[in-house]
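README, section 4: Worked example with a bound small molecule

Sections 1 through 3 covered apo chains. Here we extend the same pipeline to holo records, where the ligand is supplied as SMILES alongside the sequence. The molecule in this example is zinc ion. Nothing else about the input changes; the structure line simply encodes the ligand pose together with the chain.
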Amino acid sequence: MSKMLLSLSLLALLLPPLSAAGGGDAYLLTERDPFFLARNGIYLSVAYDKGRTRLVRPLLPYDSLPAELRAALRPVAPGEVRNEPAGSFAKVEADPAVRDLLSRVDPRNISAWAERLTMTGKRSAGALDLSPASGNRLAADMIADELGRLGYAVERHCYRTRKKDDECNVAGRREGERYVLVAAHFDTVGHENAGADDNASGAAALLEMARVLAAYRSDLGLIFLAANGEETGIAGSYAYAKKLRASGELSKVAWAINMDMVAYNKDGVIELETNGEFAAHAEWVAALARVYTGMTPHIAMPAWGSDHVPFLEAGIPTYLSIEHWDDHNPCYHRPCDTMQGLDWDFAADIARLNLAVIAGKARLTPN
Ligand SMILES: [Zn+2]
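The generated complex, written as structure tokens:
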């Protein structure tokens, strides 16, 4: 943890809670990259800091802040901000058929896929131009091969964001009248053989969910979106949502689920992040977490900074499933985000929860 992060954490302890912090110019901080915070933390005081949700007050007039900091500050409305243990009013009965589905998740598969992704090199979408065999492309190829091997129709969806190179998402699809979409990004901020937790873990959990569901028929179609360009402005998911809109399919996506950082187990807490309009949906997911996993669900809102955002903006009930972000993984966006110290049983529990959600939405029948 950097000194700056530490001081932000200490500051949070000294400051009053949100309710006492008053209205006015508190902003949701939508960037937590440690290098970004090292540059910009000096301009901020922390008004609220729980898990993913951090409200800050600028120490200078807004207009004199650095442009990159202004871009990361979002005004929030009173009542829009929440980060706390889920309520217990949503009740779910355990279903033996769902338990059987979840018992098929194997943490060893998730760990093995995550390790292969991590060892592809630098998976930065922004470095595509720089290397003829970039880790980003190797990772995309690996995911495409695995989804194809599992029997899904593989789609390479390329979108133009830079002069020389297209970036490409990889999607594995099973067609249907309506869809559940599962997203996880496979790009990183670009450290060599890093990005194990962020987000080889989520991409690997996506592959494990695809593997388990390959053995089931379903009345809903499935889209497994391995997204590129998340670390450079959620580019891949925005492009994919735009493409679905153009083809008339976006309105057929009934639910979406995002996994981003699922293998650093701080204290057994999973954060379920969404926007206020889908709070009841998140509480239902939390009830499933209590029934089918050992995790403690927290609800976080509003949503920011990952692949759930484009689908929420399209009005689709979507949540992010993510490890507890109180002080988050100390190796977040650093070269030390390697396989070491990660908890694959925890990642498996997050995959199980998201499968339980799909089982609650779709009629699944074993082949
Ligand atoms: Zn990420």
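What to look for in the output: The chain is about 35% helix and 25% strand. The pocket of zinc ion is lined by residues 185, 198-199, 230, 260-261, 306 (CB under 6 Å).

Section 5 describes how to batch many such records.
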